[in-house]
Amino acid sequence: MSYLEYHVKRSPTGLSKVLYVNWALVLLLSAVASVGFLQLYSVSGGNFERWAEPQMQRFALALTVMFVVGFVPLWFWRSMSALGYAVSVILLLGVEFFGSIGMGAQRWLELGPIRIQPSEMTKITVIMAMAAYYDWLDIRKVSHPVYVALAALMILVPAFLVLKQPDLGTALLILGGGGMVMFFAGVSLWYFGGVIGAGVGLVTAVFSSRGTDWQLLRDYQFRRIDAFLDPSLDPLGSSYHINQAMIALGSGGWSGRGFMQGTQSRLNFLPEKHTDFIFNTLAEEFGFIGGVFLLTLYIGILVTCVIAAMRSKNRYASLLILGIAGNFFLYFAVNMAMVMGLAPVVGVPLPLVSYGGSAMLMILIGFGLVQSACIHRPRERA
Amino acid sequence: MKRPPKDNEESARRISRRAALLGGAQLVFAGALVLRMRSLQLGQAEEFRLLADENRINIRLLPPARGTILDRSGLVLASNVQNYRIVLVREDAGAPRAALERLAELIPLTEEEIERAEREIMRHRPFVPVTIVDQLNWEEVARVAANAPAMPGITPEVGWTRFYPFGAEFAHSVGYVGPVSERDLEALESPDPLLMIPRFQIGKIGIEREMEDDLRGSAGHRRIEVNAVGREMRELDRQEGDAGANLQLTLDRSLQAFALARLGDQSAAAVVMEVQTGNVLAMASAPSFDPNLFVRGISVADYAGLRDNEYRPMSNKAVQGAYPPGSTFKIVTAMAAFEGGFATQDERVFCPGHIEISGRRFHCWNRGGHGRVNVTSALAESCDVYFYEMAQRTGIDRINAMAERMGLGLRYDLPLSGISSGLNPSREWKRDRRGAEWVVGDTINASIGQGFVLSTPLQLAVMTARIATNRAILPRLVHSINDIEQPQPEHPPLGLNPVHLAMVQRGMFEVSNSQRGTAYASRIVDEAMRMSGKTGSSQVFSITAAERASGIRRQDQLPWNRRDHALFVCYAPESAPRYAVSIVVEHGGGGSSAAAPIARDIILAAQNGGLPPVEAYPAPQRNRIESMIRTISDQIGPAVAASSLRGRA
After folding, report:
1. Cα B174 to Cα B284: distance, rounded to the nearest angstrom
2. Rounded distance, CA A215 to CA A22, Å?
3. Of A281, A379, A374, nearest to A24 (Cα)?
4. CB–CB of A304/A22 below 8 Å?
5. ipTM above 0.85 for this complex
6. CB B108 within 8 A of CB B648
7. Residue B617 binned pLDDT confidence (cut-offs 50, 70, 90)
8. Between residues 136 and 155 of chain A, which touch chain B (CB distance below 8 Å)?
């Protein structure tokens, strides 16, 4: 939105911005987070301090950050897109060379007392950069091979750096998020067909690299894929997790075993019960109804975002909102497919529900950008 | 940057189109997720519920209380007593080594025990209680309990273990229990899951082993909920098992104690039976051992001591020992000859001290000869020549058949370990086993219980009971199971001619009541208690020519293991028989000197229901007998169990 336009139409200023906040989105986000609080309380065996309380504190903080981000005018964020992207790539390179190892992967960067995970931030900055890129690019040139290649490079560089950490799940989310912005911007469908074909080729390459010097995935990642393909192969080894997760999910039945009555999670059979597999605890304790309820909330968030994107006549705002919504979709879709045994275990948390501050903060910063787009949507003068 | 409005509208339309396309795809994907949930949660819910329960529910067995074993009057021969042990939980105790060393300051623990315990502890998950030491006494447990605050993770616990209050007295008959071994498990087709419980005890020998199924009872179980690493979270339900059956035996503790004590430190066996019922009142095998040693886990040194003892303390000689019955077998030969019609009461045979049969000379034990003997005096004086003569006439087939009628060569169905059937030789047996034809010399040897004939003390007692009653008495050891009386075995009449039987009985009476009798020195003067018996001295080796040349004439000049076995069988009171006794003293020398006095003391004890009455003995012997009885009486003590569970060595 240009300064000129700002004067032609009117955007809310000052405290009146509060009136234009997309409250439906806030409500849905809070509802999803509350499901998380409930489940974290349950899986800790009724220990409020263990997971539920810190999660609530983080949510409160992240929600505040969301409002702050949302009250900042959108054109500020637009002009920050290129800078944010550059910082992300530099930080990812920093992780590559100076990062510390956590959980067998290089993900953290220690800058004095602050420990940051650049890969989380990159998910948002790539979407911002892609939206700004296509806002800048002449609409007739979006399918031009040079500009498509440029966009692809903008996505692939950070995705590759994240994959090297290695963090396959986040790399996929970056690829997906960026790719979706390209899709929304109108890049020819032929390119996407080509990428899908290339993806099939890549999978073949990854599998054929196994056991060779140029192995593209770590051994544990291969084992997870094996476990996904045939969970009964090795019930106490790498497929133990997915088997136990399926048992938790399946044993929930129609209405579940009751709050705090899930034996799989309460007795620790379920691995990562407070993070990646928290959906299974919900499905175990509240059954099919509980699972569908959460899925409905997620879809509600998507619908809210799509409506907001449609109402915005600003290309940057629309692409940004749809990109962030698409990223959010990938988040929960990959996690849910994974915990239901439809996808390999790649280590993607369930957004806003899984325990963890870093991912939640980035997600709400993303929705902060959505709020900013909603609040600062130019409106006809009354 | 300002874009023409057309551009803007085109952009917005394209975005909307693409958003609708991807949104649709997303909804399809969400639909797929719902379908997947439906199939797992609604379609396969029961399977998964079952799997979840399999995960969380463990079944733990509750060992049942083992049945106790009682004597005929209800005294406890084998009981379950509390057993104090120390268990350690690693996650509370910290480093096991340090914890064990602290513990070793309070209770005796060898370096070897510490190392074994440490290995055991590290094999289990940190929250699993591991038994470090077992069978502690109260003092030691109290010391540990008093120091408990200083030793987290180390707690005394109480369990149950087998205890034999009378120690060695019933070691052979009752037997003992011990922890289940690999061999025990291999021997079973489908072992009771109880046997997998660490340190579970099962019968190893004797009644404890043979009646294991009755004694063990059935396991109870508790269903517990466990978490992923197996830690018990709570108990879901519990079902107690059924305790094992209590057994009441026919054995009589005081008679058993007296018999064992009376056998003393000789290698010997004694059996006491009720002649009318076959109830075995005592079954002693000396020397004995303390079965409690085996329950605790016997030390290598103790075990070697038992194993290498030439008196074979671990063998139950009363049923496992098969001895040449010697002259006690003459009862069979005599009965066979009379029942076959080859001898008459008045016929006298001249004994010159030997007899020539097919060119070979067979000696009588009395080389001077007995002169003219009839059946009564031949039995009383144990004249070999008379029986050589009768055996020649009767033949081995009839002797073999009579021995079987007397219960020899049979394996009785008693719950004891390693029961020997002895050997009642026949022509077929020799042909099959030795590949040779039976010769008349074999018959001559068999007629006086030498050669191939082998009998166990139990069989000899049965034979005596049958002679006393003219019935096919069978032995009985278990009186009742859980207060349900076990049926008496049938004792059908033997059908021996009463006249013939009376002649043999008369001969046996004279053995210990006629001045010429071989056991006259062991006579009973109380007429109501008099016994009829038969001595036997069975040759194990003949005195060699070289030994004879070096001046050895008598048994006591030979080394122990070359002397004759001494045997004696008897029943009493002779007028109305109630008890039969058989005694075998391995390498004891002569039956009249080594076995008959023991038999007299035991049969008097049986008749008196306690200790033998001194008045029943001939007056000149009373002083000696009285002091002997006093010594034994002090040794066996009163009829209560001396109970001290354990002095850990």
Report:
1. 11
2. 47
3. A374
4. yes
5. yes
6. yes
7. very high
8. 136, 139
pLDDT at B146: 85
Q: How far apart are CA B430 and CA B440, in angstroms?
A: 13
A236 has pLDDT over 70: no
B253-636: CATH topology: Beta-lactamase (3.40.710)
In whole angstroms, give the CA distance from residue A117 to residue B519.
Answer: 107
CATH class held by domain B60-90+97-249: alpha beta
* pLDDT tens for each residue of A20-53: 899 999 999 999 999 999 999 998 888 888 899 9
- Higher pLDDT pick, B59 / A127: A127
Burial A351-371 (b: 16+ CB within 10 A, else e): bbbbbbebbbbbbbbbbbbbb
Q: Are A249 and A340 in contact (CB under 8 A)?
A: yes
Where do the domains of chain A lie? 3-375
Give the tokens for residue B159.
């369990």
Span B115-120, mean pLDDT?
84
Q: What's residue A195's pLDDT? A: 83
- CB A184 to CB B18 under 8 A? yes
Q: Which amino acid is at A102?
A: G
Q: How far apart are CA B215 and CA B481, in angstroms?
A: 9
Are A63 and A364 contacting, i.e. CB atoms less than 8 angstroms apart? yes
| Structure-block tokens of residue B243 | 């305790």
Say whether residue A252 is in contact with chain B using an 8 A CB cutoff.
Answer: yes
Give the helix ranges, DSSP H, for chain A: 3-8, 17-20, 23-43, 53-71, 74-98, 118-136, 145-163, 168-185, 189-208, 219-229, 240-251, 263-266, 278-311, 315-339, 357-375
Exposure of B125 in the CB half-sphere (CA atoms within 13 A):
8
pLDDT of residue A174: 92
Q: Where in chain B is the domain with CATH 3.40.710.10?
A: 253-636
CA-to-CA distance for A328 and B605, rounded, in angstroms?
Answer: 98
Which among B467, B473, B475 is positioned nearest to B497, based on CA atoms? B467
Look at A253 and B42 and tell me if their CB atoms are within 8 Å: yes
pLDDT of residue B55: 79
Q: Where are the beta strands (DSSP E) in B250-331?
A: 268-274, 280-286
**By a Cβ cutoff of 8 Å, what residues of chain B touch chain A?**
1-3, 7-8, 10-12, 14-16, 18-19, 22-23, 26-27, 29-30, 32-34, 36-38, 40-42, 44-45, 47-49, 51-53, 55-56, 225-229, 233
Q: Distance between CA B325 and CA B447 in Å, rounded? A: 10
> What CA–CA distance (Å, rounded) separates B150 from B139?
18
User: In chain B, where does the domain assigned CATH 3.90.1310.10 lie?
Assistant: 60-90+97-249
Cα B561 from chain centre: 25
**How many Å apart are CA B399 and CA B155, to the nearest integer?**
68
Cis peptide before B573 (omega within 30 of 0): yes
Average pLDDT over residues B633-640: 72
Handedness of CA A149, A151, A153, A159 (dihedral sign): negative
Q: Find the mean pLDDT for residues A121-144.
A: 91
